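Here we describe the complex-level prediction in full. Unlike the single-chain runs in Section 2.1, the two entities below were treated as one system.
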Amino acid sequence: MAKDLLKVKDLSIQYNTDEGVVKAVDNMTFEIGVGETIGIVGETGAGKTTTALGIMQLVPNPPGKIVQGEIIFKGEDLLKKKEEEMRKIRGNKISMIFQDPMTSLNPVMTTEDQIAEVILLHQEVSQKEAMEKARDMIETVGIPRERGKEYPHQFSGGMRQRIVIAIALACNPELLIADEPTTALDVTIQAQVLKLMKRLKDEFETSMIMITHDLGVVANICDKVAIMYTGYVVEYAKVRDLYENPLHPYTQGLFGSIPNVEEDEKRLNPIKGLMPDPTEIPPGCPFNPRCPKVMDICKSVVPQRVEVEEGHFVNCHLYPAEEYKK
Amino acid sequence: MSKNILEVKNLKKYFKTPKGMLHAVDDVNFFIKEGETLGLVGESGCGKSTTGRAILRLVEPTSGEVNFEGKNIVDFNGAQMREARKNMQIIFQDPYASLNPRMNLGQIIAEPLLINKVFKERKQVTDRVKELMDTVGLTPRLLNAFPHELDGGRRQRVGVARALALNPKFIVQDEPVSALDVSIQAQILNLMQDIQEELGLTYLFISHDLSVVKHVSDRIAVMYLGKIVELSDYNAIFKNPLHPYTQALLSAIPVPRVDAPDNMIILEGDVPSPVNPPEGCRFYGRCRYRQDICKAKTPELREYEPERFVACHLVEELQK
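The structure predicted for the assembly as a whole is:
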């Protein structure tokens, strides 16, 4: 197995709101090897984006606060870094692609200027060299280099997302965090962007965190996957293990909710009920009011992480820790 | 075989823009049989929503016929149209924008009943509203709640209840689940299916999500840049798509399964502008198989096999 590039350990992030404390991310643990891609899957409000912002240390404070945990990047805890040091890492060693390509570009700067800005900030190169490199990046993402002189509004949605990718990859980062990079795009354009990301991942050996709600995208591009529900990781495994043998009832429910394109089915099996209010997470397992296999213990005790088979972790009382202890 | 409840003939909707005529819907023909669901799929800007709206005359068609139960509603005057709309309703995409924030649920759902003066007494209206809320799975406790107090799934249920209020025969569903999370999406899809079976409704289901469309539809029409390029039984379309665009579209769906074959057909470029489109096949610029004839002549939607319609000059050749 490749060496760990990033290790997130017991990370908890809270937002203090007027309605109460929201545990956006609770005790999150995962690791990424060099060249590896992990998918973080969950529905609205599951804490996916907050996790990403936490790693980048961009959680708006206040109201947000990282209350505990470690984020070890290449052996160093990012949470102990000063803001100036973080600024040297962001966009350089770790960079991020945001969901909406319409709003994450500066409308009054040409695209090549926006890419060159990152390069100038992090590398000791001349203006001219930076521009040249920016144009190279534009070409790398499949856009003619002359178009770098154009402004974001002159590009289509798919092309804008390519520009965002070009900015993110301009300094050859070791870790790329992509927050729903294809959600705003049409399916044929999504296919183009996914293919591009796969190619670039192989070319630059970048590790990647892919945040999405689409289990199809995960199967297409990820090595590992973490399923989140109300700030908790409920299941964490290699993609193959999780897809072939989903253990947590929430994971099973997610799979039951997606219409199957390959086979015929008459009815979907949705998860009953709704996500709980983030300020009033039920005691015990947060999924217990919606769980079809709920037991008494689920209503009072928070399930701990259990390694059911090698590398396949689940937080659920159906899999008691004693049975799986080696 | 059941009869056709809706027949759309040569429907066109052009919008005037500073750059020229925008051909949002360009000569579209289809019919929907009573009790079935026709799925209308395509990417952003292909004209699927405009088609749905033009059928209800929420946008006035530029030309063409919309025959609902044998009568061309495009010729109807205001009073006739109001009467016809009792039978033709719509559910909108965005449950956040389609409900009046200043009205409570009781008022929102009662509005169509009051406008059409269905009942004489207030009590009857309230009873009907409660009945509708029950049908869509909303607790009566929410009668006085306002839309902002509800999550997206419940809001969409309100939209469904409002659409059902006048006992319509036909409902246009314009991306009804796109704004919802998957677990909630599945709940709404099941609800719509139950209601259809119970009340014998006919749906036009508009969506960009192919797996959802396949799940709900009996037949599927694929739109590209204002035109229907393929229309047939959902099974046939997924098993053997005929049009090169349909093939690419279907191959691009990421399948939630490991070892899914990676045979995505990656289309070059983007959808061209619908403003003053040139003669010839709209898909010409991005098609893998394009030939001279495709540029010279616009392909008509024709019956390639019984009940299978496709608009492509090369389909015979490609199927060999």
